[in-house]
Amino acid sequence: MAVTESAPETAPAVPEAAGARATPENGGARAAHEGILRRQAARESAARTYARALPIVPVRARGLTIEGADGNRYLDCLSGAGTLALGHNHPVVLEAIRKVLDSGAPLQVLDLATPVKDAFTTELFRTLPPGLADHARVQFCGPAGTDAVEAALKLVRAATGRSGILAFAGAYHGMTAGALAASGGASDVRVARLPYPQGYRCPFGVGGEPGAELAARWTESILDDTKSGVPSPAGMILEPVQGEGGVIPARDDWMRRMREITSARSIPLIADEIQTGVGRTGAFWAVEHSGITPDVMVLSKAIGGSLPLAVVVYREGLDTWEPGAHAGTFRGNQLAMAAGAATLAYVRENGLADRAAALGTRMITQLQSLADDFGCVGDVRGRGLMIGVELVDPEKPPSSPSGPPPAAPELAAAVQRECLRRGLIVELGGRNSSVVRLLPPLTISDEQASVVLNRLADAVAEVAKAHAGTEAESPRRTATGRTQTVGHAQGAEHTQRGERSG
């Protein structure tokens, strides 16, 4: 995950966040909070990530809201890196978990058939793109998305008899060997890296449809040129929206070109829907925006309803594995399957994908005003409730005459810290950790969305003023174009603390 290495190793006491219940009596709670953070820094590995930038100790959570051990409350727009489609502790998820616990059913069954597993698989297949659902197989993997990616890479290599993989610059597919290779890391898996089209930092300098067309032609050239050094690959893996890569949505026409290119050359197309799936982008699965049907889908995060679960869904013609060709001890998590089935059904029955599309469009439109007001905001982009704000340094020259200003990871980290001070949890991503990312639950209300936008706007304004060395303005202009006091923003959060039904 993208983090700033300059984040403090042992975090000082966090300034009281918006909505904190500060009282003379909570000194003990704050001391306990700080003690837990000190022990974590002393005991846990240097590889930890989120804890460095987010020095909080969650003890209670509901919907969008997290309460820390020190009594501070936060609006969580990280959502477990997109895992919590329904937010924290949604009633339908808790009910599904309790039902399994109260039934006396086994909690771990390897790959044996159970009623809970059957219900999950039935609901999953009900949501799949029609072209895949009618002729699909599912492989339950280990508990993490990277396990599903590893299984998918193994699957297409076994089915095609080929070894190489096509992947894209800026991709993130996990932390195991094959997944790291597809993400740009070192591995013995041979990966050919292709350009991923984007508007703001187009690798060809043109953006839009021309940039996507050039990226597609590059891919065709690599595959058809016998001297390219890239033999016919076992598969192509892509993200419909690059999440960790900086919230970069693929153009629908480019997605269709990738499907045409791979189909014409009998190359299985793997769609990584680990973060984009289950309504996140405004369609149940992000590939549905372009109307394509991949050969393989790797799924995790939200499909477990907040618990660890990962699967590979693929067309039956690829199912050439021998028994035991791929296994894993923790692939029979009954609680995760129950929570996942409940989440899939709730998103489907309540039209939360459509809700994400509409609300996400409004939020992105409102956030784009930040780019007009502050030179350090280079780009606002996203799809559905998967939103990114890229921070740049307008005082430094661009790398090319017509290109954007250079990325400013230090400003993005400062915005993240200012957000936390105001009671808002956001993530960083992008090639240079310069993109502030929002992944709110699909159940976020309009009022909560306004509070999120206003707190983010406040944080950006504070950082921009500090960067420029100017005085703070009063009253402030919000992302929604209104003037508003901090007290009003806090009040809106208080009215939503019950979170309705999640």
Automatic annotation (TrEMBL):
An example molecular function term from Gene Ontology annotations: diaminobutyrate-2-oxoglutarate transaminase activity
PROSITE patterns from the UniProt entry: AA_TRANSFER_CLASS_3 (PS00600)
Pathway assignment: Amine and polyamine biosynthesis; ectoine biosynthesis; L-ectoine from L-aspartate 4-semialdehyde: step 1/3
Region of interest (Disordered), ranges: 1-32, 392-411, 466-502
Transferase listed as a keyword: yes
Biased composition (Pro residues): 397-408
EC number per UniProt: 2.6.1.76
Pfam family, one: Aminotran_3
Residue ranges, compositional bias (Basic and acidic residues): 466-476
Coiled-coil ranges from the UniProt annotation: none
Keywords: Aminotransferase, Pyridoxal phosphate, Transferase
Compositional bias (Low complexity): 1-24
Statement: the UniProt record of this protein carries the keyword Transmembrane: no
Reported cofactor(s): pyridoxal 5'-phosphate
Superkingdom of the organism of origin: Bacteria
InterPro entries in alphabetical order: Aminotrans_3, Aminotrans_3_PPA_site, Dat, PyrdxlP-dep_Trfase, PyrdxlP-dep_Trfase_major, PyrdxlP-dep_Trfase_small
Family membership: Belongs to the class-III pyridoxal-phosphate-dependent aminotransferase family.
Designated name of the protein: Diaminobutyrate--2-oxoglutarate transaminase
Classification of source organism: Bacteria, Bacillati, Actinomycetota, Actinomycetes, Kitasatosporales
